[in-house]
Specification:
Helices cover 76% and strands 0% of the residues. The protein has 188 residues and is an all-alpha fold. The longest helix has 60 residues. It is rod-shaped, with a radius of gyration of 34 Å. The structure holds zinc ion (ZN).
Amino acid sequence: MTEDQRIEELDSALTDLARRVADLQVAVSGVQGTIEDQRDVLRSVDGLRETVDLLVQRFNALLPPDDPDARFYSPITTPRFWQLTGRDRERAVERLRAWVDGVYRSQFGFVARKLPACWEQHDFCLVVLDVASELHSCLYLQPTRNQGLLSGQAELLTRLMPALADLMASEGKCEHSQNIYRANGARR
Ligand SMILES: [Zn+2]
């Protein structure tokens, strides 16, 4: 083999090698693209659950289904009892009355029985029941339950509801109950 032939052979081998390296580069960047795509996919799966929950909540806030049990929590505007009068006030009280009759009395046993009969006449009780009902809705009208929500429910049952009930019971030692007492006394 002449020197020229050898150089030609080496040159051809080099060209072949260069082509293979180029092919490999294409393959590597293809794999890299796939890995990045998969990372994006995994990242989007991570966020998907929150996104779905959020969408369900937004959907329910926009279009509450007819079945009240299927509704998820969406916050209401805080009622400003110090400003509410007339029909607006009646509506806010009606909302609380519906919760007291539909949820509080049936779910909170002896705690709920502490509610003074004259609660509707005490702004303090309205304010407390507003917080109690919103806390309950927020903790119980959720599409899924995680550890944080569960411990929130335990906190509500063992500490918050009993404390709120005691506050309202203290407020209920009022002129209304004395009037009832006097009325009963007069009848005797
Ligand atoms: Zn009272």
